[in-house]
Amino acid sequence: MTFTEKKKLSKKELILERAAAMFREKGFAATSMRDLAESVGIEAASLYNHIHSKSQILEEIIFRMAKKCNEHLNDLDKPNVSCIEKVEAIIRFHVQMMINRFDDYHVMVNDWIHLTEPSLSDFVSQRREYVQRLEAILSDGIAKNEIRPIAPYVAILTILSSVRGLEFWHRSRKQISAREMEEHMVQHLLGGLKAK
Amino acid sequence: MTFTEKKKLSKKELILERAAAMFREKGFAATSMRDLAESVGIEAASLYNHIHSKSQILEEIIFRMAKKCNEHLNDLDKPNVSCIEKVEAIIRFHVQMMINRFDDYHVMVNDWIHLTEPSLSDFVSQRREYVQRLEAILSDGIAKNEIRPIAPYVAILTILSSVRGLEFWHRSRKQISAREMEEHMVQHLLGGLKAK
DNA sequence: CCTACCGATCGGTAGG
DNA sequence: CCTACCGATCGGTAGG
């Protein structure tokens, strides 16, 4: 990698970072390329030396995050890990993503509607598959009597939405630390699942 | 009320209804007045005989819903109702609102960011007060040993976000009926709160 | 409720 | 990376 390429890469990363922050604050549609350019410190036209289009920015932010989620789930696919341990790891992973990559996570969860075809269908099917894999882990745990017989569909929905709800916590002046929040969430969400 | 006023009123209601549906589908910023006009069946300019501006539509949708939430909470403020009964009523109320008034609920929860001042501050403070009232009910229940000693802040956040997560369920071809979903949610969310 | 139209702003391109 | 600029579309108004 030449020096020029390296510089270009890091400027692109800066654009993606600022874009995620602005998309989260104002939403994808309400953020203009001129707003974004100002935040990056260049003219709007100059953005196009680093990225192809506004849609491409959204796609990169969202599919990078989706990839992280899928990879984490792949890493968990070991036979010696119990189902309840897997669920705990998934809760912790999502809580940490929500806290540490707040802008990117928020954009994935809220702005995927603004994806255009074929990216939209791609994302929706990736997400469907992800949810199904989580449900399979829960079903497996129920079959092995590790987990209380609860509708996997409802449990997964509750877990993923609760994480999404951390947005409130993130916005408010934080009464509770990130570490405490994570423990509370694990306790609350996992506590309701474990078989006695 | 004259006949003319009555007709105007119902056309305005139609506009608000269609607007909520489109804001939910595409987001407030991505919905144009021309899109909305087409959905209503008139020209864009004609919308302005019924409403003042695009922002006003958003405000009406959101503050009507906020009012419903506040009124429901006021109705619950009776001394002979236990805290756990109050929490159950709140969960059921939100689940039913999410299911029966899906578009309006979704717009309130997702598109409030697009409110402009002074409406934005108004909404944010109303929501803050609402959450504080819910927390107070939980704190009261904990003090009376009706509810397990859990951080009220986290519990309220979990309840409200889980309801929001019903969006997934609503979008998907429904494997579970509304009635079942409500019972599952009450069981799951209330079950984790009750003192033994 | 429509036609006609306003100024502003949008995403993006040409050319250097 | 900038200046200059494109066609398209935006929310909204005038006038009837």
Describe the structure in your own words.
Two copies of one chain form a homodimer. The first copy, chain A, is mainly alpha-helical and 196 residues long. Helices cover 71% and strands 0% of the residues of chain A. In chain A, α4 packs antiparallel against α6. Chain A is elongated. The model of chain A has no long low-confidence stretch (mean pLDDT 91). Chains A and B meet through α7, α8 and α9 of A and α8, α9 and α10 of B. Chain A binds a DNA duplex (16 and 16 nucleotides) through loops.
Please report which band the strand proportion of chain A falls in: under 5%, 5-15%, 15-25%, 25-35%, 35-45% or over 45%: under 5%
> What is the chains' assembly state?
homodimer
Mean pLDDT figure of chain A = 91
Rg estimate of chain A, integer Å: 19 Å
CATH superfamily of the largest domain in chain A, by name, is: Tetracycline Repressor, domain 2
- Helix-strand topology string of chain A: HHHHHHHHH
What is the level-2 CATH architecture name of the largest domain in chain A? Orthogonal Bundle
Shape summary of chain A: elongated
Sheet with the most strands, sense and barrel status of chain A: none
Q: How many domains comprise the coordinates of chain A?
A: 2
* Count of helix runs of chain A: 9
